[in-house]
Protein 1
Amino acid sequence: MNKGDINIIEEIKKGNPLVFKEVYRLYYAQLCRFASDYIEDADEVEDLVQDTLIKIWDKREELAITNLKNYLFTSVRNACINRLEHIKIVQNHKEKNISEIKILELKDETSDNDFIVIIILLMKQLYVFFYL
């Protein structure tokens, strides 16, 4: 750990907003470029990086950081991986729901077809009853 990181981390832990603003300014664009290797949507990348930096600020008193740059990039990478896993879970649920809807639609079609067959049979019986 270098002396600059130690000072920056200590100032962040003390709640110095100017130091955190400088960290934000120095690393935000780099972190966004890094996150865009994982996430394609630029708006989502920006939100993810901002959320990560805000979480770091919110938990500043609890942080045990030895290398600020590594910590920031690792945090963003983990946030990207978590987001991708969430997207995958949501997609799986959507696919499952679509399958269930298709099954229900098939059941409805079958029910409609059965209903039509019953009506045709009843009409034949009525025809026989009235005309024969």
Protein 2
Amino acid sequence: MNVAEAFVATAPLSHHSLLIFLLQLTVLLALALALGKLAVRIGLPSVVGELLAGVLLGPSLLGDIAPDFSGWLLPTAPDQMHLLDAVGQMGVILLVGLTGLEMDMRMVRRRGATAARISAAGLLLPVGLGIGAGLLLPGSLLGEDADRHVFALFLGVAMGVSAIPVAAKILLDMRLLHRNVGQLILASATVDDAVGWSLLSVVSAMATTGVRGGDIAWPVISLLSVVLVAFLLGRPLARIAIAAGGLAREETGSAAGPGPAAAGVSDRVDPAAGPSAAAPPAASTSAEHGTASASAAGPPAVPRIPIPAGSGGGASGIAVVVLFIFAAAAGTHALRLEAILGAFVAGILLGSAPNLDSRRLEPLRLVVMGVLAPIFFASAGLRIDLTALAEAKVALAAVVILSLAVIGKFAGAYLGARISRLGHWEALSLGAGLNARGVIEIVVAGTGLRLGVLSTAMYTVIVLVAIVTSIMTPPILRATMRRVEQTAQERLRELDLVGQPAGLR
């Protein structure tokens, strides 16, 4: 049977299934946008409100007070759930791709030694604590038939990651982008992200293949292959894709600007680049998501220039970027690694290309951050069951995991900063900034639940840790940064920021 015959033989989506699917998208998106805006108004990342939308519609509230209506709107039939899951998976792949696109690898290289020490210590300690906790937690928190060692590794990865999207948004809101500590938080979080996605792919592969010696070797070899292919072929392919999509910067001077095409927050505030490089990004829709989504608008003195329709790099350019991200995601998934690793690598390759005019990708950012990401996070919230916390051992596990996650990240980052000869309060500030887990930990938790490694109760605990650490970061960071004296160079950068056009402040 060929593809055409299969389409004819397969029953089309029923009227009722399509109706339910469209209603699910409508209700989830409407509630996610409303609660996301409310979260931003009270000083929280909008992802908190979007997750809450799913929580309210899930078993924690609607499923408890109106089970019949909940069962009608959100039926548990696999065919129906797969429709919503497919939209969510597409959203998270593009979200992670855009996150990679915003990475500034040049800044990581410039601040590499210090960032590497801080990131290494800030990863090793919480990952170790997470693995230890995973080996000791009650078996009821594991997914059905999950291997205890894989569960422990998953928990370690979840506790070790930091979220550069949330960190960047917090630094932007608190006007700390011009501070040296802010630079190091972003650089270290970038390293955390890269290592975290790699670890997640390896552990996910172990969840499907097992933990025997040969089974462990395969994901490691696959990961090394991805790195090699990205290094040898990825960069030229990214440049070709950018040129083919009409996304290259025009060689006319002012509109292009130096640096990576998708430099994001960190590139324009790197101290090594001097005061003129200190302009912060525009607080766009994606920044409200707690995502490092500032579009690279070129040199600080040049405001964002609208790209008229038909000027190149429009729909075809966005399609090329999506194609590049999807192809990379499919490649890593074919190697039994997580698809999001391929998306992340593709984003880094595109963002590091010197010829990309990132402004032309703004429509894609708006669709992903304004539509697909809220649906993904609201769908993730549907899986949270707060009623599980009524069970004593689950509540105790939540307290233990949260405590270990916070202590591990703070102590690890503090140790790495002190080894790098930073002061006491600077080191505490780094610990506070890197403590925010946010989006990254939510994706890790969702992956663990999908693979059957985590139970619903454990998934709920990990997502709550992501939310709580993101909420607690701003007040702690504000308190510690008051003790860090501003340098003359930082004051010059701050003055330079004040002089920028309003759209770039």
